[in-house]
Design brief:
- The protein is an alpha/beta fold.
- Among the domains are: about 90 residues, Rossmann fold; about 60 residues, Dna Ligase, domain 1 (2-Layer Sandwich).
- The protein is about 35% helix and about 25% strand.
- The chain contains 11 helices and 16 strands.
- It has a 7-stranded mixed sheet with strand order 14-13-10-11-12-15-16. A 5-stranded parallel sheet has the order 3-2-1-4-5.
- Helix 1 packs across helix 9.
- The protein is globular.
């Protein structure tokens, strides 16, 4: 079956297209604009734009892979009307919703021996500044799709009040204790019987922003068997199969779950570079094929999000650019896919300008 990868202007979706294309899957790239990077990938079988559901119906039978949370919401809402020729890469929608509910994740994970950071506050943004939250803390959206696009670290009452002022008064947010420890990423693909079909683990060397940001540098590590067992139990407990990536933090001997993403994720190029093709394994599971045993992979391979390091350098830490040694995988660049790489890099380089222009238009 063919694949349609949505949000192909994003680097995680481009990584998904590359993985599917490398495995011989005809992957069509859908982006909101003509210059969406994935549309120009050499691994894309075709370029699409316009209404996603209409494109899927025309291209079907086809599997539609989302690249961001809002697209997951849209596809789950459309599922009853998509028709038999359009397949989503998920089991029952309730399983997906259960894993994406940040408020409910704590109960699910703790039952499998994976605690989450203590919740200090859950409620509307209007009450955030006066809730008496112990600082420092991490403020994140309560729902998968939110006016707060990502988790934010707050260290003072002033920062907390400023963040609350940025958000709609009724926007529900979650504040959790700030955990100091080693960040990890564990990606798993479960087949329809709940068996592990693919796995990849990496340790996070740095993030941007530093206290609660995207992974800027990681290194591949062997899979922790006990951690994998608990993560698999978490996924099986909801009836989920497919790809899931967990953000974790290790504090002493305890490993806590920070977030869970049932979609292509930003540092996935390292798994691909190490020979672990998670997109292709996921596609095999969706099609009902046996993907075979999980692939072995080398430890010590490095991933780098250069844009994040450039941001850190611009904000007072230029030595970040010299840290970490040579990376085998980049967030955007792939030597065998130069045009898509250049478009991703160009989009990243012009993003600050476009944001400022948008702010000026909004103020006028």
């Amino acid at each position: 079956m063919d694949a349609l990868v949505a949000d192909a202007n994003l680097r995680n979706a481009v990584a998904g297209i590359r993985g599917l294309g490398c495995a011989g899957v005809r992957a069509f790239a859908h982006a909101p604009a003509r210059l969406g990077a994935g549309r120009w990938s050499r691994f894309a079988a075709g370029r699409e734009t316009g209404d996603l559901a209409e494109v899927a119906a025309r291209r079907g039978p086809i599997v539609v892979y989302p690249g961001r949370e809002a697209t997951i919401d849209a596809l789950l809402a459309l599922r009853p009307r998509l028709g038999g020729g359009v397949v989503l890469p998920y089991p029952d929608p309730d399983a997906v919703r259960a894993l994406r509910d940040k408020r409910g994740l704590a109960e699910l994970a703790s039952g499998c021996g994976l605690p989450t950071p203590a919740t200090l506050f859950e409620g509307p943004a209007a009450e955030l500044a006066t809730a008496g939250i112990e600082l420092p803390a991490i403020v994140k959206p309560s729902a998968a799709v939110s006016a707060l696009p990502t988790a934010r670290a707050v260290a003072s009452r002033r920062e907390l009040a400023a963040l609350a002022a940025e958000l709609p008064a009724t926007e529900r947010v979650l504040a959790q204790e700030h955990i100091a420890g080693r960040l990890l990423s564990l990606a798993l693909v479960l087949d329809r019987e709940g068996r592990v079909a693919g796995r990849f683990q990496e340790e996070v060397l740095r993030t941007w922003p530093r206290d609660a940001g995207s992974f800027a540098a990681t290194v591949s590590t062997p899979v922790d068997g006990e951690l994998e067992e608990r993560a698999v139990a978490l996924l099986r407990g909801t009836g989920y199969w497919g790809l899931a990536q967990l953000d974790l933090v290790r504090r002493d001997r305890e490993t806590l779950v920070l977030d869970l993403n049932p979609r292509f994720y930003a540092c996935m190029p390292l798994a691909l570079r190490c020979g672990v093709n998670l997109p292709a394994t996921w596609h095999a599971v969706v099609e009902g094929r046996a993907p075979g045993p999980p692939a072995a992979y080398p430890a010590g391979r490095r991933f780098r999000w250069l844009e994040g390091d450039l941001y850190a350098a611009r904000h007072g830490d230029p030595m970040t650019l010299l840290r970490g040694g040579r990376a085998q995988a980049g967030a955007m660049w792939a030597g065998d896919d130069p045009l898509a790489s250049l478009l991703l890099a160009g989009g990243a380089a012009t993003l600050p300008i476009r944001r400022r222009a948008g702010a000026v238009r909004g103020a006028s």
